[in-house]
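Hey, resending since the last one bounced:
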Amino acid sequence: GMTSVREGIRRKPKAASKIAERPSSGGPLWNNPWTCYKSQRSMNSEDVSGLVLGQIAGRESLPNYHGVDLSRCLVPPRRMQVINGSVRNGVSEDSTETVWLVLEEEPGRKNGYKIVFNEQIGMFGLATRGFESDAHPVLCGYYGDFPTTLEAM
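The structure tokens again:
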């Protein structure tokens, strides 16, 4: 499950730092959906944008079932909060994570999927509107690189 992947990332800091030195230009690095992109320093909006664009370079029509038009749905990356719900020992725990919003299925509206990037683990994920009472969108999960996450929509 997800935890073993996270632990795997944590256990191999050497590989992670090697990845961080590579330019974010897509390429063979991204053939493995579990490759994570972790930067040595805090990322800004331009860094995140470059990462996304590097991964879709030459693939403007990426497959996904929702017919998302990238030219319309990609948004200038900005930080936002998502709720990450997990169940520990039968008790559900909600934690809030700060992520970068990079794509909205329905830009400017609350509905639809959002693609987010978590700088801490270097992976893209999907978030969606939760209940009316939820203060933030709810994380569906992390899927790896941007194309894989788009396909998971």
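The CA atoms of residues 92 and 147 lie 30 Å apart.

Sorry for the duplicate.
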